[in-house]
Specification:
- With 337 residues, this protein is mainly β.
- The protein has one domain: Neuraminidase (6 Propeller).
- The chain has three helices and 26 strands.
- The strands form seven sheets. It has a four-stranded antiparallel β-sheet with strand order 1-26-25-24, with no helix packed on it.
- Strand 16 and strand 17 form a beta hairpin.
Length: 337
């Protein structure tokens, strides 16, 4: 597949800082091979089952006790970020937009395919912020991140190299008949990624700027939750205690990328090089636990597992922290007890 053209911009990377961070920990890791490439995100449903989605569209259910898994459906696209509400699994599909799957019947339907007239390519993550409650809760409002409006999943590196900042945060409101209306609330995110909600704020990972940005749905105000991260933040989730954010870190910063930040023409030439020759970031299995809303890192988990790939999703449940990633077919977990 031919690469799309890029229009790099000049930018200045913020210097990384881990001042005040605790020493990195190396928890004992267990691994499950789901035999589907690059399970991107990981979530848990009300029955304690673990869900993930992989290249090729596979939606996979994992029993957290036995480790047994099965492919229950396929989106026909590329599922990325996931969210559970009752018997609904919301799926950000980079090729099809925002979908939902019934967890009882496994039927899949499309919610939205565009926002403000722009296709929802590279739909990245989704979080429900308001619902009806009850035994069969229905969504009233959710937010979706779109990593970039310029590139598809196969060429995501183009957005990181270009650094044009076309990522979006989109609010989706549902009427009484569950008809959705999508509105863009932020349109300049640097590769928008994971989203969590805490104390009236949304916290959105900006992979391309090594930071997490906060947004107030009530006032529209924005601020920085944490910046100057030493790597690329990806998907996130709220911890079991409700007061922290687990943040998956896809890899360490790329020194060549930062050295070329001020040279857009050179980056344009380098983009023409086949991906297999481009430098890859160092990718330990890597999670941060961050206090909210202050943004203080309270735990730094880094374990080098050959062949695991990038850490791109995380969820804590039942005394375990589950980690998903791209670059292999593995899901990992470690005990918090």
């Amino acid at each position: 597949m031919a690469k799309p053209a890029i229009s790099p911009v000049r930018w200045t990377p913020t210097p990384a800082s881990t001042a005040g961070w605790p020493q990195p920990q190396e928890p004992e890791i267990s691994v499950i091979d789901v035999e589907s490439d690059s399970p991107e995100d990981v979530v848990v449903d009300d029955r304690g089952r673990i869900w993930t989605g992989a290249i090729g569209g596979d939606i996979i259910c994992i029993d957290p006790d036995s480790g047994r898994w099965q492919v229950v459906a396929t989106t026909g696209g590329r599922p990325l970020g996931l969210e559970v509400l009752g018997a609904r699994l919301f799926i950000c599909d980079s090729e099809r937009g925002l979908l939902q799957m019934n967890l009882d019947t496994y039927a899949i339907e499309t919610i939205i395919e565009e926002a403000d007239g722009v296709p929802l390519t590279f739909c990245s993550n989704v979080i429900v912020t308001e619902h009806t409650g009850g035994i069969d809760p229905r969504p009233r409002e959710l937010y979706v991140s779109q990593s970039t409006t310029r590139f598809g999943y196969d060429h995501y590196k183009g957005d990181i190299i270009e650094h044009s900042g076309t990522g979006r945060l989109i609010r989706v409101r549902f009427d009484d008949d569950l008809r959705p209306t999508a509105t863009v609330v932020i349109n300049d995110l640097q590769f928008a990624n994971g989203i969590v909600a805490h104390a009236g704020l949304l916290h959105v990972a900006e992979t391309g700027d090594y930071r997490v940005r906060s947004y107030s749905p009530a006032t529209g105000e924005q601020a920085v939750t944490i910046d100057r991260l030493p790597g690329f933040p990806d998907n996130a989730s709220i911890s079991a205690d409700g007061e922290h954010m687990w943040l998956a870190m896809a890899g360490m910063r790329s020194r060549p990328l930062e050295l070329l930040a001020k040279y857009p023409r050179l980056r344009k030439l380098i983009w023409r090089v086949p991906d297999r020759f481009l430098p890859e970031p160092v990718t330990p299995l890597w999670l941060l636990k961050i206090e909210l809303p202050g943004g203080r890192v309270v735990a730094d988990h880094r374990v080098h597992i050959p062949g695991f790939g990038m850490s791109t999703g995380v969820v804590e449940t039942g005394g375990k922290v589950w980690i998903s990633g791209i670059g292999s077919s593995k899901i990992a977990w470690f005990s918090t007890r």
